[in-house]
Amino acid sequence: MSKFVIEGANKISGSIKVHSSKNAILPLLAASLLSSDPIEILDVPLLEDIKVLLQLLSHCGCDVKIEDGKLQITPDIKNGDINVDGVNKLRASILLLGSLLARGKKVVLGMPGGCNIGTRPIDLHIKGLSQLGAEIKLNQGYIEAKVKKLKGAKVYLDFPSVGATENIMIAAVLAEGETIIENAATEPEVVCLANFLNSMGAKVMGAGTDTIRVLGVKKLFGCSFVPIPDRIEAGTYMAMAAMCGGELELTNVICEHIRPIIAKFKESGVKVYEGENAVRVEAPDRILATDIKTLPYPGFPTDMQAPMMSMLSIAKGTSVIIETIFENRFLHVGELVKMGANIKVEGRVAVVEGVKKLKGAKVEAKDLRGGAALVLAALSAEGVSEVEGAFHIDRGYFEFEKNITSLGGKIKRV
Ligand code: EPU
Hints:
Belongs to the EPSP synthase family. MurA subfamily. One of its GO terms (cellular component) is cytoplasm. It comes from Caldicellulosiruptor hydrothermalis (strain DSM 18901 / VKM B-2411 / 108). By secondary structure, the protein is an alpha/beta fold. The chain has 2 domains: about 5-20 and about 230-414, UDP-n-acetylglucosamine1-carboxyvinyl-transferase, Chain (Alpha-beta prism); about 20-225, UDP-n-acetylglucosamine1-carboxyvinyl-transferase, Chain (Alpha-beta prism), CATH 3.65.10. It contains 13 helices and 24 strands. It has helices at about 20-30, 50-60, 95-100, 125-130, 160-170, 190-200, 230-245, 260-265, 305-310, 335-340, 370-380, 390-395, 400-405; strands spanning about 5, 15, 40, 65, 70-75, 80, 105-110, 135-140, 140-145, 155, 180, 205, 210-215, 225, 245-250, 270-275, 280, 290-295, 320, 340-345, 350-355, 360-365, 385-390, 410-414. α1 (about 20-30) packs parallel to α3 (about 95-100), α1 packs parallel to α6 and α7 runs parallel beside α9. Bound molecules: uridine-diphosphate-2(N-acetylglucosaminyl) butyric acid. Uridine-diphosphate-2(N-acetylglucosaminyl) butyric acid binds near residues 118 and 164.
């Protein structure tokens, strides 16, 4: 079990390139199973979650090769029984249900896992896939599902779930007839998946709006695809520079995707300059308090809530943060308090009374984004910190310590 040892209060400045988005790539991997030909995905950071999903694809029978970020998948489904170790390590494994059903396979799938940030039910996935004609049985610890041929249907989502929208889209592209997903998620990762499916020959329309229309096709073909940049990785590094008094340039950024994040940085007094596929931030003398409410896109992303809280813990004034997406996404609060932050939580609301400086402490990452938030806090704090549970952070930030070191931060993995 590795941990990060961080010597704080060093300036974070320089330039780095943002990696492709983990949450965009994971659905592409599941959707690769739909193709009859080999698939190539470029610029893939080999993060833990991506490695695990690739292992699951190999378990199904696919041939998987990755070299220098170039991923080649030759799809083949010999095995729809994936009630194996690994499924429970990440949330995105539930997307294999949609793709295996689309290929007419009988599926046995372990229950998906992922960060412990709430109950994370799968009812909307099950409802949508059932409406397309799948017979799905939930057992203790695993799911059984089968269908002869999925049939297009109208699916209304009670909540614009990112994963459920993706799963239904994946299932619908090879279904007979038309599927309409109403109250669909509009996140950039959903649009990226639609573009990927369309480049394989699918007919997906309206992704990025709340109504997605999918016209089923008979067959999908190979493609070569570049995923979108990681908007959360970008936001996390922006918060890091803002907290550590630096100037940072990020390349491979789609500013449109981080609009709500940029808005909140500007309210906090951070200078943000948008370029073409790039963004530059300049830290203010003192960060200013601002209020945040997490919402589905284009609202403020829940994945940026923890890094933002870390930043606002050293702001001038009081910030109110409301987490509306996940019911248990304040696990970092107790750890930030150990570092001298003044934060009180009442249900889904956190009140952050800014302090001048945080101080180094021994803390524990309990989930991915909360873990990253603690690294930011430690980088800005006086003294040395230890952040246990580095594996949580490895799930979502590729070459984290290498990037931080190149920007002037002092971080070691032990
Ligand atoms: N929900 C249901 N029923 C469902 C599905 C979701 O009630 O069947 C609820 C969830 O419990 C939650 C809300 O809907 O309260 C939103 O969940 P959603 O399905 O949108 O999230 P997800 O697909 O499980 C993805 C990302 C998360 C990110 C959320 C929201 C991946 C692999 N994960 O999760 O990323 O927070 O969308 O944007 O794409 C992370 O990267 O740290 C992370 C947790």
